[in-house]
Amino acid sequence: MATERRDEARGGSFSRRASKSDIVDDAVLLATGAVRSAVKNLLIVRALRDGKDFDEAWWLDAVAREFEAIAVEKDDDAKRVEEDRQLAKRRKGKALHPSDFRTKDVPKMKRRVRILHLIAARLRELGTDHDTLLALIAEARANALDEIASARHDPGRQAEVDPVTRDAAMALLAEDLAALLKKESGTP
Prior knowledge:
The protein is mostly helical and 188 residues long. The protein has 6 helices and no strands. It has helices spanning 2-10, 20-49, 56-88, 106-127, 130-153, 163-185. The N and C termini lie far apart (56 Å).
């Protein structure tokens, strides 16, 4: 993705082999988006269904666990590719199907293993960076509030709303949440 954007900006073709750092950057960007989306969904569920208050320490740990889970997936992928690579070293000839790796595939598979380990390392780095975790939580909270406000404003439409409409919807949401809290606490 990053390589293609740079090539496109230069007016070049996409035939250039992507650098490891570009591939890692793109994968980390996608993984971070997936974590942000998962956190947004969990924020909504914990707030609306479970009635849980926001606890920053809990969220920091939860987001770090999300990054670690994806890092573990990447390490597992690397292990699987390495096992396939070891088998491919002994197999000559032409592949019969897409997952039939042969000796000519070994260098690419070795590169893939290295890249997967780099992605896992970067994700673990992000998962221990306090500022990154806080920023991601803040973005996810804003996205969750926007989604809730949008659904509250018009449940049939998830479209963008102008700031005045958003503020009105947020005020209605705050009233709804206060009433729900009052009802659950037994306060008249």
